[in-house]
């Protein structure tokens, strides 16, 4: 099992449209559970353009932004709120590098990713981003999922 911190935390993961369309949700969830995550919430939805642009607003103005927004609105995606000791860092380790070709063997992106933009999953990169990102899938109730 990958290493994480010892303090219990929540984190957030999105299974992106291609991974969902290709039937990889079960495999991804299996990898998360193997790594020690408890699933606190699951929601499936198709993001609007404004929602996707808001979710990835930190990348606005970068060359890949429009393509990412287009991809994230191309079909259903699944948001998961997860809990584990050191969850944010642990999840980043379990999902692997953004580029599936550079992701460590056995990581979610190495197993299910197809390209940098369509790398199967998105993982919150800090505790501050967890609530913000999960709100796109769970609305205001995102704050109550870890209680």
Descriptive report:
With 147 residues, this protein is of the alpha+beta class. It has a single domain (8-46, 76-144), classed as Nucleoside diphosphate kinase-like domain (Alpha-Beta Plaits), CATH 3.30.70. Helix content is 38%, strand content 19%. It contains seven helices and four strands; from the N terminus they run βααβααβααβα. The chain has a four-stranded antiparallel sheet with strand order 2-3-1-4, with helices on both faces. The two termini are 25 Å apart. The model has no long low-confidence stretch (mean pLDDT 91).
Could you outline the blueprint of secondary structure elements for this entry?
Layout: E1 8-15, H1 17-21, H2 25-34, E2 38-45, H3 49-55, H4 65-72, E3 77-85, H5 87-95, H6 108-112, E4 121-123, H7 127-138
Antiparallel strand pairs: 1-3, 1-4, 2-3
Strand content: 15-25%
The averaged pLDDT comes out at 91
Number of helices: 7
CATH topology: Alpha-Beta Plaits
Describe the global form.
globular
CATH superfamily: Nucleoside diphosphate kinase-like domain
Uncertain runs: none
Task: Tell me the name of the CATH class.
Answer: Alpha Beta
Helix-strand string: EHHEHHEHHEH
Integer count of domains = 1
**Helix-and-strand structural type:** alpha+beta
In what order do the strands lie side by side in the largest sheet? 2-3-1-4
**Major sheet: size, sense and barrel closure?**
4 strands, antiparallel
For the termini, the CA-CA separation is 25 Å
Rg, alpha carbons: 14 Å
């Amino acid at each position: 099992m990958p290493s994480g911190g010892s303090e219990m935390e929540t984190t957030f993961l999105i299974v992106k449209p291609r991974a969902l369309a290709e039937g990889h949700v079960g495999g991804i969830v299996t990898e998360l559970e193997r790594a020690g995550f408890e699933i606190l919430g699951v929601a499936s939805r198709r993001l609007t353009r404004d929602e996707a642009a808001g979710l990835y607003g930190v990348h606005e103005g970068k060359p890949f932004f429009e393509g990412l927004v287009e991809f994230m609105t191309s079909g259903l995606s699944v948001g998961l709120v997860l809990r584990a000791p050191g969850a944010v860092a642990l999840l980043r380790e379990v999902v692997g590098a953004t580029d599936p070709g550079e992701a460590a063997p056995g990581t979610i992106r190495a197993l299910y990713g197809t390209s940098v933009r369509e790398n199967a999953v998105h993982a919150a990169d800090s505790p501050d981003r967890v609530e913000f990102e999960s709100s796109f899938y769970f609305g205001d109730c995102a704050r109550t999922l870890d209680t």
